[in-house]
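User: Structure please.
Assistant: Input sequence and predicted structure:
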Amino acid sequence: MSGALAVFRAIPLWLVLALGAAGVIWWQHGQISKARADAAQLAQQAGQCKLARDNLEALAGEQGKALGDLQLAARQRQSSAEKAVDEAKASAYADYQAANRLQQERTGGDQCAAATSIIDKELGL
C-alpha cells in the first residue's frame, strides 16, 4: 500500500485537481447534450400539440357555425310549418262548418244523432 500511496503523493495536487475538473466538465457536457436533445424533443411535441389544438379549435368553430345554421334552418322550417297549418285551418274551417251543417241536416239537426251516424259509418256498422 505504501507503494500506491507513494505514487499518489508523487502526482502534484494541481494535476489531480485538473483531472477532476476535466472529469466533471466531461460529465456535465454529456448531461447538457442529453438535456438539449430532451428539450428539442419536448419543443417538437409542444409544436405538434399546438398544431393539433389549432386544428381542433378551427373544427369546433366550424361545428359551432354549422350548428347555428341548423338551428336557424329549424326555426325557419317550424315557422313556415306553423304558417302552413294556420292557413290550412283557415281554409278548411269553412268546409268543416259546411260539412257539419250537411250532417245535421241529414240527421234532422240533432247533434247526437249526427255524431252517432259518423261513428257508426267509421266503424262500418
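Residues 64 and 70 are 10 Å apart (CA to CA).
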